[in-house]
Amino acid sequence: MPQYPNRQFLDFEQPIKDLYEQIDQTKKLAEKNPKIDYSSTVQQLENSIIEKRREITTHLTRWQRVQMSRHPDRPYTHKYIEKMSTNFLELFGDRNVRDDKAMIGGFASLNGQTVMFIGQQKGINTKMRQMRNFGMANPEGYRKALRLMKLAEKFGKPIVTLIDTPGAFPGLEAEERGQGEAIARNIYEMIRLRVPVICCIIGEGASGGALGIGVGDKVLMMENTWYTVISPESCSSILWRSWEKKEVAAEQLRLTATDMKEFGLIDEIVPEPIGGAHWDYNEAAAILKTHIINALDEIKIIPPDERIEQRIIKFGKMGFWDEAD
Amino acid sequence: MKKEEDNFESDLSGEESQGNIASEARRKWYRRFRKGITTSTAEKKETPEGLWSKCPECNYICTTSELRENLFVCPKCNYHHRIGSDEYYEILFDNNEYQELFGNIRSKDFLGFTDLKPYQKRLDEIHANTDLKDSMRVAAGKVNDYELVVACMDFEFIGGSLGSVMGEKFSRAADYCLAHKLPFFVISKSGGARMMESAFSLMQLAKTSGKLSQLSDAKIPYISLLTDPTFGGISASFGMLGDLNIAEPGALIGFAGPRVIKETIKKDLPAGFQRSEFLLDHGFLDFIIDRKFLKEKITQVIMLFQH
């Protein structure tokens, strides 16, 4: 986890940065005047940083939530797996075309129970971001995910997916290899899986790219994430014919965890550390772990056939319409 | 540019560009007084709508009735014009007899979504201007004496977009197939998910796939016909999940739209990219079927599954 001064700040996080700078200045003063005790001042400033973090995240606009979900210091899938579990055995490849670095997965021990973790992976620096294709999987990524899910199903291991993607990759080769079919197949197979499936949006949940590993018995969303049918930017460009309306689009799409919970489209909101997951990876992972374990405990006692039926019924209820007589 | 236009005009009147005085005078008498169109809109003479039809592919012009007789396929280049559920039902069902199902389900604006226009206003306008209730219609009827349930999209209705109503109609159609043990045939023509229904439209992908899972377990054949265009949420769900996936010739089918891909990879796309023939070559279609053979082919498929 990056520490100040290596931390990055979003525009609305600037007041926190200012406080850090004040601490720096105070510490410099303390060096110059060793006789004066500045520790209480530093302590006060540190407290106000935490207060500021809380204050900023209590009334974020929907667009700001989107920005939070993309925070450059935010933990990604691999980090959560590392912090939540032990014995992570990463598995590669779709057994067909190649290994998609944007989609990772493997067995791990979660609280003593073997589970299959699957999720999109974003890069932590420019080079890694390119290698991970910014978390945008190709068809082989979705087929790798499906292969791993089938493997877990065969051995009766629960599946936990961690979703963080700006969308499935819109590329020429992706189309040649059937991006649509790959996602469709995953959605179809996931609804039929005989093992418990928990899905959690840990960052961006963009459309089919997210849903391609997002069909489960319980769908969780972390506090500062978004999940909907299209990114606010693309929505703005299509419906408003301009890239400038992304804030309005985000408002109209109602894409935050709170919105999604209210609509009954997700099951739970997972709280984040004060100010967001990027402030404390350990705490963020610990909270998420508790939620996943609780959800697993709740659904693993249900017989497989019943679980599948409940899944179909749950998604079958989603939607709104008028019915005339 | 100006020079070229002048030359063009004089070419039209059969003049030499370096004209003498006589030709100068000759040029004057037809010269118009004012430039631009001066006829007022009220005086404008309209050609009756829908009498003639021009093929967007080869520019061949024929009468609409000729085109209709040819099942809206260009007689010259075999271009398949975009048609709606009415036309498909006429092509498929014996004597154009069918029973429309679940026609009472209508979209509503649950989210209060407003882009350049409120969603509810969009819906009201289409309801006022067309007979369509939503972007999908479901019908049951006989195809060469075989009973079949057909769900067909109408591109005219917000681009055939997949929203809650399409998801619900699809689900009920599947339930109807389950209850009556009938094969299910879906004709897709859609730009993808309906953005105005936000995440609700996304969840229709899972909702419809759940129903297909039940059809599979009951061993009920599900045939998916993809027509021009089929994109996004449809290709990422039931569009690509047929026991048979088939398409009309030359249809544009894909996950991401060509413009988005072009912007992403910053390269021109190869000719024929995302066309039916391209998908067949890459292994995503069972076959391509001309509209004029659609009915007999579907009959053959149902027959083979049943016997």
Name the overall outline of chain A: globular
Number of strands of chain B: 10
Q: Average pLDDT of chain A, to the nearest integer?
A: 95
| SS field, number of helical segments of chain B | 10
| Strand coverage percent of chain A | 15-25%
What is the residue-averaged pLDDT of chain B? 89
Low-confidence stretches of chain B: 8-19
Provide a concise account of the structure shown.
The complex is a heterodimer of chains A (325) and B (307). With 325 residues, chain A is an alpha/beta fold. Helices cover 48% and strands 16% of the residues of chain A.
Feature tags:
heterodimer, A: 325 residues, alpha/beta, 8-stranded mixed beta sheet, 14 helices, globular, B: 307 residues, 2-enoyl-CoA Hydratase, Chain A, domain 1, 7-stranded mixed beta sheet
Describe this structure in words.
The complex is a heterodimer of chains A (325) and B (307). With 325 residues, chain A is of the alpha/beta class. Chain A has two domains: 11-59; 66-316, 2-enoyl-CoA Hydratase, Chain A, domain 1. Chain A is built from 14 helices and nine strands. In chain A, strands 1, 2, 3, 4, 5, 6, 7 and 8 form an eight-stranded mixed beta sheet that branches. In chain A, strand 2 (103-110) and strand 3 form a beta hairpin. In chain A, helix 4 crosses helix 13 and helix 10 (232-239) packs across helix 11 (246-253). Chain A is globular and about 75 Å long. Chain A starts with 13 loop residues before the first helix and ends with a strand. The relative contact order of chain A is 0.12. Chain B has ten helices and ten strands. With 307 residues, chain B is of the alpha/beta class. Mean pLDDT of chain B is 89; it is low at 8-19. The termini of chain B are far apart. Chain B is globular. Chain B has one domain: 2-enoyl-CoA Hydratase, Chain A, domain 1 (Alpha-Beta Complex). Chains A and B meet through helix 7, helix 8, helix 9, helix 10 and helix 11 of A and strand 4, helix 6, helix 7 and helix 8 of B.
